[in-house]
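re: that chain from earlier
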Amino acid sequence: TGDVKVYVNGNLEASPTLPTGSLNLENCILGQEQDSFRGGFDPSQAFLGIMDEIRIYNRVLNETEVYNNYCDTMTPTTLGLVSWWKLNKSTGTSAPDYLQTNNGELFNFFESSGSCWAIGRKGEISDEGYGVEYDATPPSAITNLSALTGVIPASIDLIWTAPGDNGTSGTLNGEYRIQYSSYNDTFAWDLNNAQLSISTFNVTPGDDQYYTVKGLEKDTTYYFRIWTWDSAYVSDNWSSISNGATTWLQIIDDTPYAVTGLTAERIASGILLNWVKSIDDGAGENDV
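^ sequence. v structure.
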């Protein structure tokens, strides 16, 4: 239609109308202002800024979709998406189409003072050049998760060693997810189905971590797994699944036995009660 909408940070800023026509993408230069199609190029016409990624759709996106794409850290709107260049290689001069739809590859990237290759991520600007840093290294998998019957009735205490933000290094600010089951052979472990989520803040790698799972059934074997996330604004930056921890939850019935021989005798000052005390509380200890 010739209507162009310009969005900045997900917000509509301008709606100019331009002449309509066909566009030959074979030699299209992204980020270049030209006086005419395939016209001369002057360095002053270069785009000065950061291209985090490039997407091409075969339909018009509405304002909500544009805003959601801007805010999304993982998967953009895919309806009508025909090409997607993530620009997340660390070296080289070309960028492949992530969708692998044979819509071409971007070429002639170059590094210079003031610009650099970097895997894009919202939130952290690099101190070197104008790249955007991206945390692509998840925490290491926890390998020493253990489970013990808890001091609190109907509970199990979990113990493990904290990994790091990147593998085994770096202060951890993120999340633990714990999943548990009373059966193991056919159970599908999945962090998205974990019953427990624990936020982490300023955790030092190697520190002991503790968590008590409450409200469990007695005389039941429980199996546990745990995952770690490092809050890298990338929702799949999770560790691999931990080792398995297993324990049998035995809850001792320590309710005292009932007294016997209860009698009542009327006396001048009232009623005198007599009974035979229970010497066993059911736990095998004569401590009543």
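Residues 84 and 98 are 5 Å apart (CA to CA).
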